[in-house]
Structure formats: C-alpha cells, structure tokens
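Entry for the shared binder. Reason: the reviewer on the internal report wants the predicted structure included alongside the sequence.
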Amino acid sequence: MPAPFRLLLATSLLLCATTGFAGGNGASSEAPAWTDEPPVLARMLEDGYRAERSRLTALAAARYCGAARHGSIEAQFQLGRLLLKNRRLADQPDNAVNLLALAARQGHEGAQALLAAGRSSPADIGNDLPECLFSDDAGSIADSGAVVPFEVVERFIASLSVERRRHARLVQRLAPGYDVDPRLALAIVRTESNFNADARSPRNAQGLMQLIPDTAERFGVRNIMDPEQNVRGGLAYLRWLLRRFEGDVLMTAAAYNAGEGAVERYGGVPPYDETQEYVRRIMAFYRASQHEQPVLRILASARPQDS
C-alpha cells in the first residue's frame, strides 16, 4: 500500500475513533474484556486501562504493548485504538491500523468495527508494527496475583443478555452472604453454565451452578432447576470447599469439578483433562490463587447452615 494512502487511511480512522466511535464501539477507553487469557496478560491490560484513565498515555501504551507482544489479541486492539487517538506515540503513521488489522484477522469485533468505519479491511493493511512489539522494554511480565478488578467483571455482566444478566446479578447478590467473593462465584457459574439456568450436562449436573442431585440434597436444595435455590446450594458447597481447602482457589475449583475426594486422593488437582482445563479457566477468570473474603454490605438473607 502506498505510503500517502496509508497516512490518509490512518487519519480517516483517527477521525472515526475520536467522533463516531466514542460512544461504545471500542474507540474510547473502557475496562478490558473479562477473558480467559493468562492472568499476567490480563493484568497488564488492566494496568494499561488504569494508566489511560489517568491520562498516562505513554505508560498505557507500554502496558498494552507488553501484553500484545506476548500474544494478547485484546491488547493488540487496545494499543491500536490508543495509537489512533495519540499519533505522536506511533513509530509510523500506519502502526495503529496495522495493529487493528492484526486483531481483526483473529476475530476481534472492536478492531473489525474500527477498520470498517475507515472503509478498510484487514486484508488491505500492511505489516509494519510498533517497535515495542519486538523489544524487551514493552513491559514487565511479573504477576501481582491480584483478583480480577470489579470494573472488568461489571463490563462483562453488562454485555450479557437480559436473562443471563439477571442470573449474574443473582449470583452477585447472594455470594457475600455465603462468605464467597462474588467474582469467584461468577467465574464458577460462567464456566459451569455460562449463566444458562436450564443447562444440563451428560452427567446430570443441572442449573446455573451445575449441581448433581446428591450435592443438591446435601445442601438442602429442593428444586434443583429453580435459579435461586440452585445458586444457594452451589454457594453453600463453594463455601464448604473454601473452608476445607483454606481458601486455596486452585484446590477449591478442582474439588468443585471433580469432588473433594478426588482432590484429596491425588493431593492436588486430579490428572483428568476436564478438571485440568476447568481449573485453568477458573484461575484465568479469577486471577488470584487465594480467595479474597467479600466485603459484607447489606445481606439479602440469613446464611443457611452447612450440611
């Protein structure tokens, strides 16, 4: 693509990013998506978001670039979007659109929208990318071990359908009454049923928290397909597991999937493919290895006794 045309395209996309897309299609700074990327990359994205909100654009670009360099598609998009708004940060005029094209080719809808706004497609863009993607100075890969931020989870919940969002709010409301961090409870429900109250598994796990009949009976659930009863039973079980494994999220997640007996028999996560993948997803969503006690505000109801 000729350099003058690339510059024109970049300018056109910049205008779209700062006007037509400012309302919510990806051009303005918003909390990163709640993905199951490795926690260290997700935290770099969140650092970039906080820096951008504080108008520390160079720091934001460094954090986004650090995550993008390690393979984060969301970071590729966020860096491309940021460079469109701050051309002085780019090494070359077409860095931003090339980053957006890279993310768009991998299915990122926000990047696809920005490219479409500029009447371009991923196939039209060249391969010149920011130098920071090839430098060890793009950002530290150290991991803080912090729980996923509330604003990231809130953005995810807001994106759900009306029915699934109602189920997510139910989980949020009830979890503190069981001494369970709502973010962990939401990670469990997202992985178990993706907030589908009618979900059933081949192993007869049912409802939002995929309770099997024995577990439902153990924790006093009379109607396993009733969303609130299902969530209360699942939270009671989750609380019991967190106490048993002293807040260890990895062990608790493994036990929720495979049963506490299997975890104790193997002295850790059982070597089952399903459980290994389940634990990976929970750890990616929650991010922290140790459960964080919720801050109790107004409890919706009294806590039932454990069975």
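Summary line for the report: The chain has two domains: 3-134, 150-286.
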